[in-house]
């Protein structure tokens, strides 16, 4: 019986070989075969739940849904106490998904001094990104070389600081991290139907 890593190597070898042939010959048939092979290999990994890098079953996103839904919300606070949404690009080069996962799993485990250092670092990142946007520059870091051709994050979010009126007018004096909780059916009927709990505030009160 063929071992999983052997099959993964063969699938990748076939993928690479067909890609080279399609690129060198520029023939329509070669490109179509390459595309069909890629789709079939991806479906193999997904439907049979087998990892065959670079074709993945994406198990991290395949789990049984249990109500309620939850999500982190990181908001900037100005000197007057007004809260603003923070553009997810402000955290680059840290992907926002990884940042939110780290906050959920690790922030509470830190001692007070280290937690404050983490809060201060995130506040500096948010203010630096806001300053770049206010000066007409790029909010994030991922597109600094390739611009619109840069690869996006896995989860695509609104570019709120590029929208009219979306950029906070003043620098942030602090951050608040909330955990939002909601029932999808209830929130679909009324977007205001959710519960928000403060998890962390910097600077701490």
Offer a few descriptive terms:
205 residues; globular; alpha+beta; 40% helix
In terms of topology, how is this protein built?
Layout: H1 4-25, H2 28-48, E1 69-77, E2 83-85, H3 96-106, H4 112-134, E3 174-182, H5 184-189, E4 195-202
Antiparallel strand pairs: 1-2, 1-3, 3-4
Helix pairs in contact: 1-2
What does the model show?
With 205 residues, the chain is α+β, with helices and mostly antiparallel strands. It has two domains: 4-61; 69-202, no CATH class. The chain is 40% helix and 14% strand. The protein contains five helices and four strands, in the order H-H-E-E-H-H-E-H-E. The chain has helices spanning 4-25, 28-48, 96-106, 112-134, 184-189; strands at 69-77, 83-85, 174-182, 195-202. It has a four-stranded antiparallel sheet with strand order 2-1-3-4. A hairpin with a 5-residue loop joins strand 1 (69-77) and strand 2 (83-85). Helix 1 (4-25) packs antiparallel against helix 2.
Strands of the largest sheet, in order across it? Answer: 2-1-3-4
Shape: globular
| Count of alpha and pi helical runs | 5
Secondary-structure class: alpha+beta
N- to C-terminal distance: 62 Å
Tell me what portion of residues adopts beta-strand conformation: 5-15%
Helix-strand topology string: HHEEHHEHE
Low-confidence stretches at least 5 residues in length (pLDDT < 50)?
Answer: none
Over the alpha carbons, how many angstroms does the gyration radius reach?
22 Å
The averaged pLDDT comes out at 88
What number of domains?
2
Count of beta strands: 4
The major pleated sheet works out as: 4 strands, antiparallel
Which range best describes the helical content: under 10%, 10-25%, 25-40%, 40-55%, 55-70% or over 70%? Answer: 40-55%
């Amino acid at each position: 019986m063929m071992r999983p890593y052997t099959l993964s190597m063969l699938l990748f070898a076939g993928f690479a070989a067909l890609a080279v042939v399609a690129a060198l010959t520029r023939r329509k048939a070669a490109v179509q075969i390459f595309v069909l092979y890629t789709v079939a290999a991806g479906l193999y990994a997904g439907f049979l739940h087998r990892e065959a890098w670079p074709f993945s079953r994406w198990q991290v996103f395949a789990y049984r849904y249990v109500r309620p839904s939850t999500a982190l919300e990181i908001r900037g606070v100005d000197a007057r106490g007004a809260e603003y949404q923070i553009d997810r690009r402000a955290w680059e080069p840290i992907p926002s998904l990884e940042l939110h996962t780290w906050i959920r799993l690790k922030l509470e485990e830190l001692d007070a001094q280290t937690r404050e250092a983490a809060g201060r670092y995130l506040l500096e990142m948010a203010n630096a990104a806001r300053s770049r946007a206010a000066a007409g520059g790029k909010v994030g870091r991922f597109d600094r070389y390739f611009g619109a051709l840069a690869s996006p994050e896995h989860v695509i979010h609104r570019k709120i600081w590029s929208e009219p009126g979306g950029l906070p007018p003043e620098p942030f004096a602090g951050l608040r991290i909330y955990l939002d909780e909601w029932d999808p059916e209830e929130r679909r009927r009324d977007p205001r139907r959710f519960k928000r709990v403060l998890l962390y505030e910097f600077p701490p009160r």
